[in-house]
Amino acid sequence: MAETSKRKGLGFWASFLPGFTWMTAFYFVPLGALLAYSFYTHDRRTQKDLPIFTLDSFRWIFSSPTNIQVFLRTLRIALTVTVIDVVVAFPVAYFLAFYAGRFKHMLLLLVLLPLWSSYLVRIYSWTLILNSSGVLNWLLLKLGILDHPSPDFIYNTFAITLVLCYAWLPFMILPLTSALERLPRRVLEAAADLGAGPVRTFRKVVFPLVLPGLLAGCVSVFSLSTGDYVTADLVGSGSSVVGKLIFDRFGTAANWPQSAALSLCVMLVLFIVFGILSRFGAFD
Amino acid sequence: MRRQPIQWGKWITGFITALVLVFLHIPILIVIVFSFSDSTVISFPIDHFTTKWYSRVFFEPGGEKLRAALLNSLEVATVATLTSCVLGTMSAFAVQRYRFFGRSFFRVAVAVPLLLPGVVTGIALLVYFRMIGIRQGMTAVMIGHITFCFPVVFNTIAARVARLPRSLEEAAADLGANFLQRWTRVVFPSIFSAMLSGGLLAFTLSLDEIVVTYFLASGSTTLPVAIYTGLRTGFKPDNLAIVTCIIAVSGLLILLSQWLVRERR
Fold it and tell me: How does DSSP classify residue A122?
């Protein structure tokens, strides 16, 4: 870059230091504090956390089959949500990128709008829909599919998965659309000229070229689903996912080192996933 | 004339797109409909419509808590937006205008709060504040909000600064403009819409945040957390009324920010 200067004077330090200092003091050091705190000793008798090194919190996480189950369930939900969102988002992104024409901007805005309207509302709304006296049961009774209202739509893993799919779908559609937009038309034409059918063109040409965009969407959806708390609290039951477990150790059971250790595990899992996906170009 | 073959791909993907758009918006419409419900339990279809929840939330006794929370929210969002805008603009210039050791690492590291879930940010700040002796409360909430707003503003402005030719400033300097004049006449006007758009994004993010706030607040809290603690214990139509107003306002803000960005394209 010719426009960047090599000489660092007052201008550089004055523009660099404030943001750097803030993020260091109020993000990176706190992440270090999180690491340290997960090795603190929790004194049951006084309910105080003492700065004495112990592995108790990690022992608690890995020795309890329930905790392992919760972790595995969370990862399974996050994976399911990611896969479903990819499958649903792909045709939408394809339509937006190739066929929407002059309506593209308007349709993209319609995808974006719910994302910023209110996160809480979009999730809470599903309790009004899935509840035994809610909208879905009313609809199914009207259509004659059900004889009597079913309570099985809510407060389970199915509800969490459905609502997370709904909540994060725009995060998959947007990067996929821009990846498809960058796909040169002539590449598709060349594939067709060389005799590749639609399936082969997709597998050999479209898919590899949009993979970074697809993975960028996967990173967002997977990360948001793994760390979710509000959805699990509103439409799930009990301490069913890690986010809920972290909150419960913080609130009712009040064992902060355990909360810290759990968050650290979530962070490590996500960093491993990011590391794997970045090898395929998720952060390019 | 050659007959056009039917574009199956176009019709199938178009149909799916229509279904998805309906799917994305129906839950929001349902909340708006329920905010006019006379009933205090979830029941559908709605028998009687009323606007009493709106008047209660904004004018009558019984809505004080939500009104106080709304004011807190606006205060936190304003402070977080302004601070993250100033910090974000400075950092965007530092990153785009200078080469320095760890420059690309800084860009990635700053995006980490966007990649990690709010639970991690919330707990990390909470234990850190306890270690250094900052109490839970509105100051802690503001610090947390500035931290997660910063990457959003930074990314938006950095993208604009990258496209801003340095020669403009140099030309201004050659013509004898001093630092202040260069900033107010050249740099600021060209990045203003990016600052506004990033700022609006930060404002709506802050106005909507639950998890980090939940950890860092004590006693008095922000609107989303107040609504959330109300809603998790049952159906509260007055909460839905204020939420509907928020949807309307943040929807307008987003449309505005989109329009501002498009102006410059």
Answer: H
